[in-house]
Amino acid sequence: MDIAFVTGGTGFVGANVARTLIGKGLAVRALVRKDSNLRNLAGLAVEMVEGDLRDRQSLKAACRGARYVFHVAADYRIWVPDPEGMYASNVDGTVNMIEEAHAAGVERIVHCSSVAAIRPPKSSARVPSVESCFYESDGDIVGAYKKSKWRAEKAALDLAAKGAPVVVVNPTAPIGPFDVKPTPTGRIIVDFLNKRLPSYIDTGLNLVHVRDVAEGHWLAATKGRVGERYILGGQNLTLKQALDLLAQVTGLSAPRFQTPYPLALAFAYLDSARARLTGGTPVAAVDAVRMARYRMFYDASKAVQELGLPQTSARIAFEDAVIWFVSNGYAPPTPAQRKRPEHS
After folding, report:
1. Worst-scoring range by mean pLDDT, 80-89, 112-121, 164-173?
2. How far apart are CA 308 and CA 302, in angstroms?
3. Which of 7-21, 178-192, 289-303 has the lowest mean pLDDT?
4. CA 63 vs CA 100, 106, 217: distances in Å
5. If we measure between CA atoms, which residue out of 113, 124, 161, 119 comes closest to residue 138?
6. Which of 131, 173, 259, 337 could form a disulfide bond with 344, CB atoms 3.0-4.6 angstroms apart?
7. Rounded to 10 degrees, what is the CA torsion of 31, 66, 16, 99?
């Protein structure tokens, strides 16, 4: 049985990747830290290897005998008081992982990047971004997280050019089950379900079912071209359209008030200052609001045509996410679920 080594298997995307690989008949080995929350791997036939992306010896041991490596782990926080730890995990950790996997003779390494590493459309542009939209440097990139993902992807592609069998995938905004933290996109859903989303801002995003993202990782390993990157995306929606769709799915009301961008940015600066003083986390981070100035629309045609990436509708992705969040205690049952108890 072929072995697939997965980093980030305890996280949202990684847990779905692990399940997909098990479904393909692979033996899955997952990297876990001493303090990892193993909830997302409970009940799965997964070999757990304790280690860290900054510990090359643990990576070397975990790669032994593996045919595939799926590097999904990342420090995914829009706001961090000190970005150096994030750079160490996301950038240095990526280099460590790819170099050790290549040295171990792994057949294919799938590096999970992000559309954060792809230059978004200009604010006036109507054409979604594609894989050929590159940043020249990280000087124009907003925020430590996006900078770290760009630097990590650049390092991965540089190593591919030197012979490492790396294929890069760039998920958009995944939604669906096992979003335990939850992610920033998942947080929007949870806040909506708990009626804590009084307004919205004029932005856009590409929503993709997390299971399509997981399948895309496997397709990249088996069909992707080394040194290429593939957007794993789904449906482009404005935030207003997404919230209206979520309202249809849940039976809850969508917010009607649009917060002007300057007001949202001013609040974000005040909230971030409060977080720095109190040691907490801002409700609205400055970088998140600055990113929202762009409609982050992307075109996944390359992955669809070359890999066969599935295109599950955003509605189904929302339905599956809502079912998971409600059944796991993040929010009360929705009016739609109370009408249809068999789907609760």
Report:
1. 80-89
2. 9
3. 289-303
4. 7, 8, 18
5. 119
6. 337
7. 60
Could you give the C-alpha distances from 35 to 10, 17, 96, 183, 250, in angstroms and in order? 11, 21, 21, 19, 35
Q: What mean pLDDT do residues 205-216 have?
A: 97
Q: How many CB atoms lie within 10 A of CB 239?
A: 18
The model carries a pTM of: 0.90
From the CA atom positions of the chain, what is the Rg in Å?
20
The most distant pair of C-alpha atoms in the chain lies apart, rounded to whole Å, by: 58
**Angle value at C-alpha 193, between 192 and 195, nearest 5 degrees:** 60
Contact assessment for residue 78 and residue 148, using Cβ atoms and an 8 Å cutoff: no
**SS3 state of residue 3:** strand
Angle, CA 141 vertex, CA 282 and CA 303 arms, to 5°: 105
A 10 A CB-CB count for 284 gives 19
* CATH class, range 3-180+208-234+297-312: alpha beta
